[in-house]
Amino acid sequence: MEVMIVDDEPVARRTVRECCEREPDLTVVGEYGDPRTALEAIRARPPHVLFLDIQMDSMSGLTLARSLDRETLPLIVFITAYDQYALEAFEVSAVDYLLKPFDEARFRATLARVRRRHDADSAGDRHSALAALIEQLERGARVRAEAQPRVLAEAGSRMHMLDVSQVEVVEADRNYVRLIIGRETYHARSTLQQAEKSFQSQPMLRISRSCLINMSHVREVSRTPRGDFILVVAGGTTVTSSEGFREPVRQYLERLKLAPA
Predict the structure, then answer these.
(1) What range does the domain containing 58 cover?
(2) Could you tell me the CATH number of the domain that includes residue 99?
(3) 51/72 Cα distance (integer angstroms)
């Protein structure tokens, strides 16, 4: 079976590769730290098995998986450091996973299931299982986020409790993130990736390596001459997507279009 590995952590990629190299029926045909480059390679030459990290900075593994052709969808093994709630979704799904950190015994157990599924599953079966898993993960994320719908942030010398649904834009600022609500700006000590988890209840879209935008507050969308998207939120803040995120933004906006009669 031909295998591709997608993980933005070099150590994690090496661990999976070394495990694969010990299996005589596996051939690693691609190893990628950048999910966008990986997506192009997978589309050009779909592997039989894809080891895919869920949590990557520039594009999540779930977003990448959604972008794959359902007719040539490989068997996907998600590599995850998710919490127990998310692991419950994997346990009841037909999609395989490896929980970081994993050892060779766990890898072999997962691989045994992959071999069985390779002989039995069709591409349609794989697509249905993937869709069910993503729905379960997103439902669990909404439930957890709704249980704690506010975040603590600072403006001036005061701390404020902010309703996450009101935050329009989240921007990275070294060891902090800026939270923009209307004309007000707040700061919280966090990475953008951590902030993304805190805002899972909201339709947050990453439009660059340093910016998330709450799509429920977007009022205007236009494009630059080179094709990047310009988004204006209700409070007047204007942000522009970067070239590397142009395609995910386009795909998101396409899904919002009304279907023709």
Answers:
(1) 2-145
(2) 3.40.50.2300
(3) 15
Q: What is the pLDDT of residues 113-172, one digit of tens each?
A: 889 888 777 777 888 888 887 777 777 666 655 555 788 999 988 999 998 889 999 999
Sole residue written with tokens 């150590």: 11
Cβ contact 202:165 at 8 Å? yes
Secondary structure (H, E, C), 211-259: EEEEHHHEEEEEECCCCCEEEEECCCCEEECCHHHHHHHHHHHHHHCCC
Report residues of the chain scoring pLDDT below 70: 82-94, 140-148, 258-261
Task: Give the count of domains, the chain.
Answer: 2
DSSP letters spanning the chain: -EEEEE-S-HHHHHHHHHHHHT-TT-EEEEEESSHHHHHHHHHHS--SEEEEES--SSS-HHHHHHTS-GGGPPEEEEEE---HHHHHHHHTSSSEEEESS--HHHHHHHHHHHHHHHHH--HHHHHHHHHHHHHHHHHHHHHHHHTS-EEEEEETTEEEEEEGGG--EEEEETTEEEEEETTEEEEEE--HHHHHHHTTTS-EEEEETTEEEEGGGEEEEEE-TTS-EEEEETTS-EEE--GGGHHHHHHHHHHHSPPP-
The pLDDT value recorded for residue 167 is 94
Domain boundary among 129, 145, 161: 145
Q: Tell me what pLDDT residue 142 has.
A: 65
- Alpha carbons 261 and 248: distance in angstroms, whole number: 26
* Contact of 107 with 98, CB cutoff 8 Å: yes
Same domain, 32 and 128: yes
